[in-house]
Amino acid sequence: MGAALPEDMPVPEPRPDIAAPADTKPADEKTKPVEKKPEEKQPKTSTDDVKEKPPTDTEEARPEAYVPPPIETEDPKVYALCIAELKAMGVEFIEVKRIDEQNGCGIDKPLEVKSIGGGVTLAPPGTLRCQTAVNLARWTRDVVIPMLKQTQPAETLVQINQASTYVCRKRNNAETGKISEHAHGSAVDIAGFTFKSGKTFTISPRKEDSTLNGAFQRSIATAACLYFTTVLDPGSDKAHETHLHLDVLKRKGGYRYCW
């Protein structure tokens, strides 16, 4: 062993040719925080008569994995009450033969509806489930007629012009995907209205319309969500630019989709 160094002898400095370890950073160098990119907002999509998501490479995405729901059987007591309400509101209808086109299309107890009460006809007559007809009559009586009086006092509603009621097809007329609520008699597309004067009102994009016509359409579309579980207006997507889609699709927790 070498002799101990005196206490006043300086400690030798390390050799200058010895490099610091590669992963050693200067003490005064601060680590910059990693900036997080803002998350991109995903566009809102509608839930019935909507565009289907692109298929993925899973069993669920394959056409054979989707099984259309069976035709809903009407509860006799509920159906009887529904029919009684239609008659009380003055709705003109005929009970027709059960529709069963297979592949999920059909109505257990279909009605051919000619008018929805209050002197308002449905043109052309439409085939609907009873509950759909009741909700359409309520909405017309409680919302459409009063709002028309507010925005166009000189006009009287005499006809609802429908573009589609029952039809066996998939959502948005697509070749694949889920069955539309139209195929269950649970939906109606409203194209416009006809007044006693002979004038017509056509559903069209009116989000930026500051006139009373714009106020009328926006108000009846918004209030429709009180009567229907799905409401799609011309602002929802290109497939609904010419009509209001209204349906009574049942969802978990009573959820409603109103665009």
The unreliable regions are 1-12, 15-31, 41-47, 50-63
Distance, first to last CA: 89 Å
Count helical runs: 3
Question: Helicity, in percent?
Answer: 10-25%
What is the SS-derived class? alpha+beta
Q: Calculate Rg over CA atoms.
A: 32 Å
Q: Which overall shape is indicated by the principal axes computed on the Cα atoms?
A: globular
What's the structural domain tally? 1
Number of strands: 11
Give the helices and strands as they follow along the chain: HEEEEEHEEEHEEE
Overall average residue pLDDT? 81
Strand content: 15-25%
The biggest sheet amounts to: 9 strands, mixed
Characterization of the model:
This protein is α+β, with helices and mostly antiparallel strands and 259 residues long. The chain has one domain. It contains three helices and eleven strands, in the order αβββββαβββαβββ. A hairpin with a 2-residue loop joins β2 (99-102) and β3. α2 runs antiparallel to α3 (212-223). The chain is globular. Mean pLDDT is 81; it is low at 1-12, 15-31, 41-47 and 50-63.
Topology:
Layout (H helix, E strand, L loop, with lengths): L75 H13 L2 E5 L3 E4 L2 E3 L3 E6 L4 E8 L1 H22 L5 E8 L22 E9 L4 E3 L9 H12 L6 E3 L11 E4 L9 E2 L1
Parallel strand pairs: 5-6, 9-11
Antiparallel strand pairs: 1-4, 2-3, 4-5, 6-7, 7-8, 7-10, 9-10
Helix pairs in contact: 1-2, 2-3
Short description:
With 259 residues, the chain is an alpha+beta fold. It has helices spanning 76-88, 130-151, 212-223; strands at residues 91-95, 99-102, 105-107, 111-116, 121-128, 157-164, 187-195, 200-202, 230-232, 244-247, 257-258. The protein has one domain (63-258).
